[in-house]
Amino acid sequence: MKENGKKIGQVVLWIVLIIVAVIQLFPLIWLVDFSLGSSNEMFTNGLLIIPKTIRWDNYVKAFVDGNFLHYLRNSILINTLAVVLVVIISLMAAFACQRMKWKLSGVVSTLLVLGMMIPIHATLLPNYKIYSTLHLTDTIWALLIPYVAFSLPQGMFLMTGFIQSVPKELEEAAVMDGCGIYRIVFQIITPLLKPSIATVAIMTFLNNWNEFMMASTYLSSPTWKTLPFSVLEFTGEYSSNYAVQFAVMALTAAPAVIVYVILNKHITKGVAMGAVKG
């Protein structure tokens, strides 16, 4: 009886998980489905459509007319720089606050982590005023600075939990062997923090990839505009061609979805280990 009850419980659990998975994946399925049809077919009954002809030309129009490669290059460049800076700064800041002895280490660590409580959009107006004064609007720095600043508290929090689990004896032995502070951080501590570094890098990338509000506020020319702007441009140019708009949104979301699917295990593993160790 116990075995039968256990099997029934597992079946019920799998059914619930499958339902949740379908609900979570349905928006992506709906997006791809509508992007492969025609605009007229979207007004038929039903949540999904079965296109009479698969319209791959929707993706061709989205790719060519939407300056997709230009916006993709900007997004990759800005997000890569943000990831590198966040990983390096959060690693060094976490080490300084946890291992180095100075009076304000606890205060600085707390202030940095408290940054997670500040809404991004609450800083739009003051940041815009500062960037205008410093002539940084419509430059790469207008996006890079806030992307790094708002990703740093989360990175600091995760890095701190991992560094606390590293035995201090390793650093003491390194000092006895004549290692300097930079060799200790980058040659001894960093290899031990690979799960944390991977988690911080992936989460920073995903959080900033589809960001639009700051980009639309600080940028005016197409020089440094990122991928979400392709969606905005198509809503005007192809206002009546909904299928092409769906194709643009599918192309915009694809890189983040691919990164998440491939590296999802690193995210969950890193966050879980950081929570336990911290």
Entry keywords:
mainly alpha, 12 helices, 278 residues, MetI-like fold
Provide the number of structural domains: 2
Overall residue-averaged pLDDT value: 81
Largest sheet features: none
Give the name of the CATH superfamily of the largest domain: MetI-like
Helix share, percent: over 70%
CATH architectural arrangement of the largest domain: Orthogonal Bundle
- Tell me the total number of β-strands: 0
CATH class descriptor of the largest domain: Mainly Alpha
C-alpha geometry: globular
Which radius of gyration do the C-alpha atoms yield?
A: 24 Å
Spans with pLDDT under 50 lasting ≥5 residues?
Answer: none
The CATH topology of the largest domain is given as: MetI-like fold
Order of helices and strands: HHHHHHHHHHHH
**Which structural class fits the helix and strand makeup?**
mainly alpha
Strand percentage: under 5%
Q: What's the end-to-end separation, in Å?
A: 42 Å
Q: Note the total helix count.
A: 12
Overview of the molecule:
The protein is mainly alpha-helical. The protein has 2 domains: 2-35; 67-277, MetI-like (MetI-like fold), CATH 1.10.3720.10. It is 76% helix and 0% strand. It is built from 12 helices and no strands. Helix 1 (2-35) runs antiparallel to helix 12 (242-277), helix 3 packs across helix 9 (194-209) and helix 6 runs parallel beside helix 12. The mean pLDDT is 81.
